[in-house]
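ESCALATION

Customer reports they have been waiting on this structure for their group meeting. Please prioritize. Original submission:
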Amino acid sequence: MLPLILIRCRGARRTSQVTGPERPARRSGPTWWFMGMGARLRGGRWLAAILAGCLAAAAQSAPALNHELALARAYPVETLRTALLPPGDWHPFPRFADRAAWGSLPAELRQRFIELGQEALIQPWPALPATLYLEYAREGNRSRYEAVYFERRQRLHVLTVAECLEGQRRFLDGVANALWAICEESTWCLPAHLSVQKAGAGLADVNEPIVDLFAGETAVSLAWTWYVLGAELDRVAPVLRRRVRQELDRRILTPVLERDDFGWMGFGASSRSGRPNNWNPWINSSVLAAALVLEPDADRRAQLVHKALRSLDCFLGPHPPDGSCDEGPGYWTRAGGSVLDCLDLLASASGGKVTVFDRPLVQEIGRFIYRAHICGDYYVALGDCAPRLEVDRNLVYRYGRQIQDPHLKALGTQGATAAAIFESVGTRSMGRLLWALFDTGEMLAQPPAREPLLRDVWLGDPDLQMMAARTEGGTCAGFYVAAWGGHNAQSHNHNDVGNVIVFARGQPVLVDAGVATYTRQTFSSRRYELWPMQSAYHNLPTINGVQQAAGRSYAARNVTHQATDAFAQLELDLASAYPDQAQVRSWVRRVRLDRQGPKPGVELVDRFELEQVKGETAQHLLTPMAVDASRPGELRLTGPAQPGATPLRVTIEYEAGKLAPTVEELVLEDPSLERAWGRSLTRVTLRATTKALADTWTLRVGW
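Update from on-call: job pushed to the front of the queue and completed.
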């Protein structure tokens, strides 16, 4: 028998879009090439030929990188050393001593923060015992520890701002207590993120500081408190500021400078499929803030900034050029929004010498948030994104100001009051809180704005392939539809290739449930046992009893989009999103919004061909509305009335000879899902009544 040699070609993947019987076998991982020793190629030439084929395949599948945004190359260490202002000359926000600036803030903010500060002073300091930390490793609960952890930091923020606003030094001891307690914590890393330490999950090894999202955010909290209060902290104890600087260096700056193996850095990613998620810009923004505020050595400061730029390049380089965020608009706040934080810090700390806001990718990343906006607080619930969001108004406004985009500025200021701005920002992030405080006057001075409601959106990059369209731009009055293709290996992925959501008069009709409260299972090998992640709980078919599978090769094929004054339409083949057990040759879905004619509405047409019928094939629909299925061929949906409006009534027509409906209530016991939808959602399953190998199903959503 001839020996068999297997060569693994990283990045190689099938690109065929055959939809008939010759559809290639699916693979969720790398391609394996097989070569017997009896090949005609002699010597080492056969190996060279195979390797060349692998490299060619990888090159075809790799995305074009955004080399125009190679920040580390554009701003080397030598340039940064001279471009960055010394810490003493950099004044991004007023300090405590600038009483005029703090005194100019709106009186209602002053009153609110002083009230919060007074409450924080009298509350006992919450403890973080080892057993609370261990709850994640022992039972998978992360919420109880995180609640106390975040409360500590939020108290620090309100005490600091209250002191700066009042200026009477009665909150200083409270600030000192908070700073000292946080410095005394064994780790700033959340238990859910600890497993990357060499000792594994459980309790933190204090000899290996782990830089995760909230270790970074803690650094931001301490750095900006150190910055705004400055010498006022010495009134409590001169050692306090020195301790803060030492802890930030030990836990954040030195590990970041010395290590390249934190996954969020992205240095190991060689293609788009391995690009880092929102952790990258989020943590890099924290590193930049801590280094720019607290690092006294100019050379080391420049090296830290350059390291952050190298890492940020790993996020921006392979980023979809259309600006799409496959993590959804909820995570855009810490993906694209954290890119803004990074670039704002760089521009400010360099006196405008380090700035890239004119680059197309930077601008497109910002625009994603209003492209995914439906109406009011509803946004397209991609992946683990919640369907209802209170966007950070100041963040959105700042992005619009930097790229001179009126839609972004309008989304930030529409209906803005001082209270609304701070409800959206909250007190969780000290850096963003300071931005919002000193932008409030400018935001409130903007002319009245209406929320941007785009008529048509197309984000065609293969990572997302999202269409959104409404009957008429600028209003929520008619129908709105969003649908997407992409693949099932997105960050925070749900198995939802081809999903569609529909709104009418700004209210949800067909929905994506979103995500339940995070637990250990959410990011484990058992993720897809959770129903909100499964295709059968999206507006998608189950084929021969088989749902969609997870992996990059489970993707949409033959995707096309059209938009005219009369209609908007997305067409795609879903067959490759299902594993071979589904026995499906093609499943072509067409999602169409008709804007004109006697029956405006949304039409969903599924045209399919199966290899065999061996299980149940059905269409699933998820809605928050009450469903009456008593009349064959028609689902009558009724939703609760908005204030001052009549109840919403929508009809979904289907072909009664082909499909038979069942209706079930999904009781929502999870607090995250309940916040979005109330006590329940309704799931309609339209089951095939015949065993046809090929058929066409048509659903129409209308009045």
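Sent to customer with the following note: Residues 143-166 form the longest helix (24 residues).
Escalation resolved.
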